[in-house]
Amino acid sequence: MFTGIVAELGEVAGIEQRGDAARLTIRGSTEGVSPGESIAVNGVCLTVTGILDGTFTADVMGETLDRSSLGGLTPGAPVNLEQSVRLADRLGGHLVQGHVDGTGTIISRSPAEHWDQVRISLPASISRYVVHKGSIAVDGISLTISALAQTWFEVCLIPETLKRTTMGARQPGEVVNLEVDVIAKYVERLLSRSGEANQ
After folding, report:
1. pTM, full prediction
2. Beta bridge partners of 118
C-alpha cells in the first residue's frame, strides 16, 4: 500500500527483456530497502528482487507491461519512486495500491503563474470511478481532480509536484498510468451485491 506521495525521482538504469516479461534496474535510494519489499515505480507496485550499488532490480510480468506504461520505458528515463507505507506513517495523499487500472494520454498542459493545469484522457472503463474534487493517482502521484468531462480530467500541479516528479516534464501525447480510488470500486461491488440480494 502507498500514499501517492513520491519520495524521489529515480532513473531507469537498464532493461532486460525476458520473453513476455522484463527485468528493470532502477537507480534510486536503496537505504532501508530489502529484497522482497514493494516499491511503486510510476505508480506500479513492483517487488524488489535485488540491490546493488545504488540500484534495485524488479521483475515485470507481461500483464503489467500490457496494462501500464512500464513497457515503454527506456534507459535514462526518469521514474517516480515511493516505498510502501508503514502503519505508523502519515497518509499524506490517499490510499494507493500500485495496481494500475488503465493508462491515459496527456492531452494538453497550460502553465499558470504558480502551477500547471494538465488535461489527461480518461478511459471509459474507469470513468465511473472518477469524481470532481476526488483523488486519482497519475504515475503514482496522488492528485485532486480539478475538472472533469466524460473523456478527460484535469489536475493542477503545484511547483513542488513539478519539481519532484515526472509530471514536471511530461508533454502532450505521453502516456501515464492511472489508478482510481479503490474505495469507489469496493462501494460499487457492495452495491451490486446488495441489488442482487434484493432481487
Report:
1. 0.91
2. 109, 155
